[in-house]
## 1
Amino acid sequence: MKKALALIISVLFVFAVASMSFAAEEKKAETAPMEKKSPAKVKQVTGEVTAVDAKAKTVTVKGKKGDVTAMIDDKTKIMMGKDTKTLADVKAGDKVTLKYSEADGKMMAKSIAVKPAEKMMEKKMEPAAKPAEKK
């Protein structure tokens, strides 16, 4: 009787250990795909547009850390103030804020905020007028 009870307890112990190891393997398999599918980090650069290629649908912006060339797609939002614009409206010399993400070695533009030229002109004129008043 003692031998039968010891045998049953040992078999139950083996099944318990085996089921724990299978459960641990399933958890590892579930978490691995989630790590690979994490969204790409959105980066931002503010600077001057140095090149616009309408055929290749790319924009190059010269920022503090260097030039960034990003590809434009149908999902890219191009805004000037509250107005929606197109790639044709972006020209070399425009001041922009480019938000992009890097995927598979390519930089994809998420949004481009073009700073209106009128406001930039006003800001440039104001500092020039102030030194003349200091005489």
## 2
Amino acid sequence: MYQNYIFDLYGTLADIRTDEDKPYLWKKLAELYASFGAFYSPAELKREFRRLEQKEKETLGGKDAEPDLRRVFAKLYQQREIVCDDTQAKMTAVFFRTLSREKLALYDGVEVFKGVEEKGKERLLTFQCTGGLYGAGTLYAGNCSLF
């Protein structure tokens, strides 16, 4: 019998939707950048973000590539001559993903976790990162006790 069970999160167990075009996102992101001394208008920030994101995609091999958004956010700071370490880039990516998220919910039928736990087995939750907290292409796995 299996001792460990691995579950995929995004698109399999959880329905996640984001809206990266809403004006509120770019307004608040511009305010965050300004708080570090990197001044952009919301429209300019969105335009530069898209340009740098596209360059990252091209570097990775095409329009469907998932760039590491930490690199994009760091470059946006650097364009304004602001030093940006990995922690600040990661924090900016988290802020961006939090504000852009419209929905994050488990799909119906995810009760499968209960049966696994009742049998004393280990549950691992995995997801492929798409350029946010851990970087594009990183496979994160951890105990999914939050479900």
